[in-house]
Amino acid sequence: MVDDVTDVLVVDDSEGYRDLYSLWLAPDCAVRTAADGSAALAELDDGVDIVLLDRELPEQTGLEVARSIEASAHTPFVVMVSSVHPDFDLVEHPVDKYVRKPVERADIRGVVETYGAQQAYLTALDDLFGLTARKATIEAHKSEAELADSEAYARLEERVTEKRREAHEAMADARSDWETTFRACTKDLEASTAPSD
Asked: Which of 78, 103, 161, 185 yields a CA-CA distance of 20 to 30 A from 122?
């Protein structure tokens, strides 16, 4: 997400669905489209925040495309949009959310809202961890009296309290989709611990 504009890649062999989703997502999202898996993977880059992925595509299925996305260096929020009823096979496939066709505008807009809530939670949590680590370091090296006399420490405590509140509010917004939130945490952790070139 750059400049608060969510970048969505719509992958569907139906031009009608591609146009409809693009219309529903405007003007809040930058929308790219692809008619098949190969075109989708060619469009995929670090700028893509969300992939709306039809399950039944020509040449490769949406689930095969989802596996290719997972194997790539990119970590978008992958949403399967399909008329096929989800089954237990979904457990083995790397999708963050499953939306049944026929869909309405609220369903597609809801995907963007879920993504936004997830990102707000992860940002608030990351900020909270950073502040808490600094607070713990200071506390380990200063006496109670020094802490009590420090205006800087008092401001840090206020910031920790405020970030904790933000994290709780963001979690409440993301609570409707716990699996999505925790998958995102796992992806974020994997990305942060991956060896760099």
From this structure: 103
